[in-house]
Amino acid sequence: MKKKLIAGNWKMNGSLSSNEVLIKQLLLGLSTPNCDVAVCVPSVFLGQAQALIQSSRLDLGAQDVSMYESGAFTGEVSPAMLKDFGVRYCIVGHSERRQYHFETDAQVAAKARSALAHGITPIVCVGETLAEREVGKTEEVVKRQLAAVIHINGHCISEIVVAYEPIWAIGTGVTASTGQAQQVHAVLRAQLKAATPHADQIRLLYGGSMNAANAGQLLAQPDIDGGLVGGASLKAQDFLSIIAAAH
Ligand code: PEP
Q1: What does the buried/exposed string (b/e) look like for 202-212 if buried means 16 or more CB atoms within 10 Å of the residue's CB?
Q2: Which residues line ligand 1 (CB under 6 A)?
Q3: C-alpha–C-alpha distance, residues 4 and 217, integer Å
Q4: Is the confidence at residue 95, as pLDDT, over 80?
Q5: pLDDT tens per residue, range 107-121
Q6: Hey, where are the domains in the chain?
Q7: Can you tell me the distance from the alpha carbon of 89 to that of 175, in angstroms, rounded to the nearest whole number?
């Protein structure tokens, strides 16, 4: 049976001193989690985080990866570099990258392929804006975003993680209702089923203001296999409570 996955997205937060405190608190509270747990840290902190979490139950994640292997791409981080630091997961296509860095569906799909080629599990984010939801386009948007990833990754699709993150719920304190989240997850599961016989093994995470109070209900939905957690992953007790709600 697949284990749930709780992944923290630190976004552009942290410092050498605060990271050390946070990771040490997490490790203290994480003796035997019932689920897989990862922290996706800014790339400059990968070495520090790798050293702190080695041989622990905490996995290391990154927040982005280049679609290229190496070369003249100033500022980019390649999948081989991430692998060198023991990175197991990499977020691709977070809405903040789609919105502020104009990443297209095709680029997100290429980044997922780049991660997979190096044995890194991409956490592929999909999600609609409030305006898209209000005009009934939620399904169309998330299916289009996921279709691009399915299209270029073929049978490797069974190796990915998908995170449904409604943009209107990210960092806003507004969470999708369990019904809204489950409904979209079921749509994504059906789309994956049409692409691979292993769709039931693919973990579908919910993200968007997940916290200690709402995690239990969200994680109890049949197609919600974990969470991608932003703000609450920066506070050890909150993140540990979400992890405790996942089994
Ligand atoms: C995120 O950044 O992926 C996220 C879900 O953020 P938050 O939990 O803060 O809404």
Answers
A1: bbbbbbbbbbb
A2: 9, 11, 165, 170-171, 207-210, 228-232
A3: 14
A4: yes
A5: 999 999 999 999 999
A6: 5-245
A7: 24
* Cα–Cα dist 76/62, whole Å: 12
Both tokens of residue 116?
């997979």
Q: At residue 33, does pLDDT exceed 80?
A: no
The answer to whether 203 and 2 have CB atoms below 8 angstroms apart is yes
Q: Is there a contact between 145 and 188 (Cβ–Cβ < 8 Å)? A: no
Residue 140 designated active-site: no
- Tell me if residue 165 is catalytic: yes
Q: Which residues contact 18 (CB under 8 A, 6 or more apart)?
A: none
Fold of domain 5-245: TIM Barrel (3.20.20)
Among residues 212, 206, 245, 246, which one has the least CA distance to residue 227? 206
Ligand 1: atom nearest CA of 207 is 5
CB contact at 8 A, 204 and 188: yes
pTM, rounded to two decimals: 0.97
